[in-house]
Amino acid sequence: MTISLNDRARELADRLVADAEAARVQITTLANGTRLIDCREGGFAAGRAFAEVCMGGLGEVAYAPLVLDGRWLPALTVTTDRPAVACLAAQYAGWRIDRDGYFAMGSGPGRALIRAEELYDDLDWDEQASGAVLCLETREPPPAEVAAFVADRAGVASSALTLLMAPTASVAGGVQIAARVVETALHKLHELDFDVRRVVSAIGNCPVPPVSKSDPEAIGRTNDAVLYGGQVQLTIDAGDDELDAIAPKLPASASEDHGQPFGRVLEAADWDFYKIDPMLFSPAELLLTSAQSGRSVHAGNVDLGVLEQSFRI
Questions:
Q1: What digits encode the pLDDT tens for the residues 109-146?
Q2: Of the four, 9, 66, 217, 291, which is 20 to 30 A from 166 by CA?
Q3: What is the architecture, at CATH level 2, of domain 5-311?
C-alpha cells in the first residue's frame, strides 16, 4: 500500500475542522472552492494540529516541559519513523509563494505534488493524491486567485485544495515552527550531501517560544528556540566512522553566525535570509545513533543564555 501524504494530512485537517470552535480556528471557503483553515487565533491545539498536518501525518507532536540548566521552559517533542518523507517531502518550508502582491512561505505535503524544489530528486518520493494540503506562514489570508494558482501547480481542482495559515507571531505559529526542530536537522544533513533516506527514526525536543508582539520579533524567537534550545536524536543506518565525521558539522554552533540572538544576525544581514550562513539553521544539540553498531555520537550544546535574551526571561 502506497502512503499518500496529502490524503493523511487531509484526514487530520478534517479533524481540526470538526473541532474548530474548541481549537479557536476559523473555517472559510474561498470563492474558488478552496477550504481555508485560519489558525491566527488558534492556540496549542491548533499549533499541534498544524504541525502534524504539515508532516503529512507521519509525525507526532506532544507537549512536555523542558529543563535547561535549571530553567523550566514550555516545550514540545516531535517523533517520526519516516523522517526524510515527513520532514523534507512534507514539512520543510521550501516554496516561496510570491504572486500578485501576495507572499507566504509554503510548507506541507502539497509541495510533494508541486515538486518546485530540487530536493525531491534525492528523496525518491512519488506523491499521488486527488487533493492537496498546503500550510502557509503568513498573516494575510490568500485571495482565491492565489489559491487557484496553488491548486493548478498541484494538479488538483481548487475545491480539492485545503490551506492552513498562521502568522509567526501567534501561539499556533510559534508551535508549528518549534515543531520543525527535527526537520532542520534533516535539512542540514541534506545540505551536507548525506542521504537522508538512511535516517531511520527521529525524536526532537524544542522550547516553545513566548508569543511575540510582531512577526519580525517572532522570527527571531522561533529561530532561537531551535538554534539554541533544540535537541534532536537521529537513528541512522550508517557506520561509526561516518557518523563521527559528520556529527561536528551538524549543530548550529558549526556556523560562524552562531552565538547571538537570531534577530541581531538577521538585522546585520539587512533582513535578507540569503546573506546568512545556511549552515546556521540546525538544532543546538544532536545525538546520532548508528543502527548498525548501536553506538551514539554527540555534537553541540544548548545555550540558555541566548534563549533568555531572546525570550526576555
A1: 999 999 989 899 999 899 999 999 999 999 999 999 99
A2: 66
A3: 2-Layer Sandwich (3.30)
Say if strands 95-99 and 102-107 run parallel, antiparallel, or are unpaired: antiparallel
pLDDT value at 313 more than 90: no
Residue with cell 542540514: 188
Looking only at the bridges linking them, the beta strands covering 231-236 and 199-207 are: antiparallel
Nearest Cα residue to 40 out of 221, 192, 215, 237: 215
235-271 per-position pLDDT tens digit: 999 999 999 999 999 999 999 999 999 999 999 999 8
- Quickly count: other Cβ atoms within 10 Å of residue 45's Cβ: 18
Determine the Cα–Cα distance for residues 123 and 82; give it in Å rounded to an integer. 12
